[in-house]
Design a protein that fits this description.
The chain is about 10% helix and about 20% strand. By secondary structure, the protein is mostly beta strands. It has one domain. Bound molecules: 2-acetamido-2-deoxy-beta-D-glucopyranose (3 copies). Pfam families: DUF1996 (PF09362).
């Protein structure tokens, strides 16, 4: 019997677990220790959440729990960093204004940030009975393609989507391009990472090759991991809410395009991407994943994990080290980008 099959049988205990929690914004600036380590500034603006040891350079041996003094995440033992690019609104006179991100449903009082899920099974599957493996210290990964400008390019990744929030709790349909109509309560981006790890490498040159999607089916359907990437991890998912409401009263493009662009210029939405650097203390994540928690119920009671209030999450902030205006009406995006919709020249 293959060892992964053995493991999944050995741990086939019902454990209705779905971990969902929020992290407030730590800092928003042009740093990217995963894709552009050491660059200060990196090419485009990100919004970052998690432990405050975040920096331009984060070697895999960096002791993130040890070097952090606080975290913006609800679990006090989670010093990971999670980040995405940010959105801008492009006005008809060609200038850009940052779209702020805001707390998600149940976390309206959070200072922006994003909601993190660690999923064992399909999100609304009441059974939730799978064992999943937590990541190891030094682990990091990326999903998406900053140069994707077509559906075909974006379709290599599963489930990097947009939802037009007609109400604050609208969760479908999910689209792969920017919504082109006005969304009453904002836009949600949902980003799901691959879930099969090679079990050896903490990272890879493109920050993706050490991870894979299931060989057949999907994570949600319990599809098996390929032999090259046999370790089934939790599905890390972000939900990010963008407050596009203030822009609904301004003039929109007459050609029907979305007025929103990513901080690196993508005006199609196909270049949606996300970054993850694991930084949980000791085995605290595995303990939580082995605990029957649903959203936050029982997570802390049964796993011993400590939670902090949203007010305390909001207190953990980092001063930007890249000094530049990212919030005013800008004639170009920070880093010198303009909106573009066609293929990206190399
Ligand atoms: C980031 O790294 C620099 C250079 O090593 C260091 O001086 C600074 O204290 C670090 N910042 C944080 C928040 O760890
Ligand atoms: C461009 O348009 C925006 C939105 O209407 C407006 O706030 C801004 O002042 C304009 N900038 C210039 C230079 O006209
Ligand atoms: C929470 O834990 C208690 C005690 O173990 C258990 O009785 C209850 O069913 C659990 N609730 C959920 C939602 O899992």
């Amino acid at each position: 019997m293959h060892w992964t099959a053995f493991l999944s049988l050995a741990f086939a205990v019902p454990s209705s677990a779905l971990v969902r929690f929020h992290c407030s914004q730590l800092v928003t600036e042009r740093l990217d220790p995963l894709v552009q380590p050491g660059s200060n500034p990196s090419t485009h603006v990100h919004q970052i959440v998690g432990g405050d040891s975040f920096n331009a350079t984060m070697h895999p041996s960096k002791d993130m729990p040890g070097e952090s003094t606080c975290t913006t995440c609800q679990f006090t033992e989670d010093f990971s960093n999670y980040w995405t690019a940010i959105l801008y609104f492009r006005a008809q006179n060609g200038t850009y204004k940052r779209v702020k991100n805001i707390g998600n449903n149940q976390f309206r009082n959070a200072n922006g940030g994003l909601t993190v899920y660690y999923m064992q099974d399909a999100i609304y599957d009441p059974a939730q009975r799978s064992k999943v493996t937590a990541f190891k210290p030094g682990f990091r990964m990326f999903v998406g393609d900053v140069n994707a400008r077509s559906l075909a390019e974006a379709a290599r990744f599963r489930q990097l989507t947009y939802t037009c929030l007609d109400t604050f709790v609208t969760r479908s349909p999910e689209m792969m391009a920017f919504p082109t109509r006005k969304c009453a309560e904002g836009i949600m981006t949902t980003l799901r990472f691959p879930t099969c790890w090679d079990g050896v490498n903490l990272d890879s040159p493109d920050h993706m090759a050490h991870m894979s999607y299931p060989e057949t089916g999907t994570f949600e359907s319990g599809g098996p991991c390929p032999a090259s990437h046999p370790v089934r991890t939790a599905q890390v998912m972000f939900e990010v809410v963008w407050d596009t409401k203030p822009f609904n009263d301004l003039e929109w493009p007459k050609d029907g395009k979305s007025p929103f662009v990513w901080s690196f210029g993508d005006g199609t939405g196909y270049a949606n991407h996300a970054d993850y650097v694991f930084g949980w203390k000791d085995d605290s994540l595995q303990k939580i994943l082995d605990t029957p928690c649903h959203f936050m119920t029982n997570c802390s009671v049964e796993s011993g994990a400590k939670l902090q209030s949203v007010a305390d999450m909001n207190k953990c902030v980092q001063k930007p080290v890249v000094g530049e205006d990212i919030d005013g009406w800008l004639t170009e995006l920070p880093g010198g980008f303009q909106a573009q919709y066609g293929p990206v020249s190399a």
